[in-house]
């Protein structure tokens, strides 16, 4: 996937160019049967999950983050949403990325 970040705006939103199209923050596209969402000025893999699958996905994401904390301290920036969504609103009613899932981890 060849993505390029362009046109940053003053409100921390940006536009990402992909395959000749300009995509805005939170915009979703489908490529080869997989969903992607523009988040933090990059195209991220997105998931739609509800009930048990959603809880399993968040649990796995939290476990990975917890394991990574014990290895090397991360300098990765995690954007916090101004309005915290309910987990079901974030991933079941719409789509969410792994970065969004880890916002629901107990230690995050």
TrEMBL record:
Gene3D superfamilies according to UniProt: Insulin-like (1.10.100.10)
Domain of life: Eukaryota
Name of the protein described by the UniProt record: Insulin-like domain-containing protein
InterPro entries per the UniProt record, alphabetical: Insulin-like_sf (IPR036438), Insulin_CS (IPR022353)
Family note: Belongs to the insulin family.
């Amino acid at each position: 996937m060849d993505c390029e970040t362009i046109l940053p705006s003053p409100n921390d939103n940006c536009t990402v160019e992909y395959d000749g199209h300009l995509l805005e923050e939170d915009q979703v596209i489908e490529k080869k049967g997989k969903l992607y969402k523009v988040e933090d000025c990059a195209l991220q893999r997105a998931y739609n999950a509800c009930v048990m699958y959603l809880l399993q996905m968040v649990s796995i994401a939290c476990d990975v983050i917890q394991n990574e904390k014990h290895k090397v301290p991360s300098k990765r920036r995690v954007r916090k949403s101004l309005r915290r969504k309910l987990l079901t609103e974030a991933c079941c009613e719409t789509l969410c990325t792994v970065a969004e899932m880890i916002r629901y981890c107990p230690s995050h």
